[in-house]
Amino acid sequence: MQLSQAVMKLTEDVVRFRRELHKIPELGLEEFKTKEYLLKQLQSFGIKEIYPVLDTGLIAVFRSEKPGKTLAFRTDIDALPIKEETNAPFASQHLGKMHACGHDGHMATLLGFAKYLSDYPEAVRGTIVLIFQPAEEGPGGAQLMIDEGILTDFAIDQIIGLHVFPDYPEGVIACRKGPMMARNGEITIRVLGESAHGAQPHQGSDAILAAAAVIQGLHAIVSRNISPLSSAVITFGKIRGGDAENIIPGEVVLNGTMRAFEDGVYETLTQRVKLAAEEIAKGYGCSAEVSFEHLYRVVDNDPDMVDAVRDVAGDSYIETPPYMLAEDFSMYQKEIPGVFFFVGTRDEEKGYTYPLHSSKMNFDEKVLLGGIECYLRLIERLNQSQVLREERSNDQRD
Predict the structure, then answer these.
(1) pLDDT tens digits, one per residue of 312-348
(2) CATH fold of 183-295, please?
(3) pLDDT digits (tens, 9 = 90+) for 246-280
(4) Which residue from 139, 264, 290, 373 has the fewest beta carbons nearer than 10 Å?
(5) What sections of the chain are H helices per DSSP?
(6) Which residue among 26, 31, 136, 137 is the active-site one?
């Protein structure tokens, strides 16, 4: 994909945006300095329509007299509770917080896009809505923004988003039709037994032993209750129980995640986890209390919009396999057609190989220019598809 000269001229600004934002990471719904920075930049571009949403979100709007759709472009703005170890000169100034998932790059991309539209208003067709969304990492800012009415208030027709992705080389644009990222939920299981001395286990009910059996049993759900042609995962990453090596605890708490690409599979996981945990614990003389927090839906890309991404990306495009990662962009896709794509950041020579959420995750900001170029081309391409549909409809009526 060849970058236009006008996009190339944004390089210095995009690098600056990303590095200044990288220094001030903030957790979900606490992004006050981030919002202040974003607002200052948007105002400096001369944008007339800027609206606050929630305490830390922003909306910027561009309108044109040229007919067209209302297209939304979304970035997440929050960071993670991670101590940075990149040794970059622009490393986090907020101890224990880091933009380890690339949201600083997403913001820089949308700011660069906004600057371009401000400098070249003729690029706008219909209405362009830029969404600066808090709390993607939790508790789920997309749904909060939807609940504030942004999709209906601005009459958004379609939504577009991207994510930097170190699995793919620099310059790659990766997408796929249909499910691309999983539906996810969190599992909490309280295994309740009866405490006893470690030398006299027969006088109690061993919650640790029961919890171990629960974990082993639940992992069989995917292999025995889910079709081999479907995908699902259950993982437990946290166990808490016991205070001393010679005391059998009366309670153990398990925390895990479950993910699937199909709603039916996800519902099966929910039912089987609850039933199996309760019955397995009972077999060890214990009980189990199972609760779920259902988080994000499947990132389900609109096929026509994926075709548009493929067309504008040209030889930079590849089809990605689906990933069991989760992303709250999916909540917008529940309401309106949307497309979400990856921008490759991997570069072995530069050392940009660390995964998302790593304390050493970093990338070359120049890859973000490809995202801006795609966004600009999508304005025209998605409106062309609207014109073609209208022409076909008129022909059929004639």
Answers:
(1) 999 999 999 999 999 999 999 999 999 999 999 999 9
(2) Alpha-Beta Plaits (3.30.70)
(3) 999 999 999 999 999 999 999 999 999 999 999 99
(4) 264
(5) 5-8, 11-22, 32-44, 103-119, 141-147, 150-153, 207-225, 263-283, 303-313, 330-333, 367-397
(6) 137
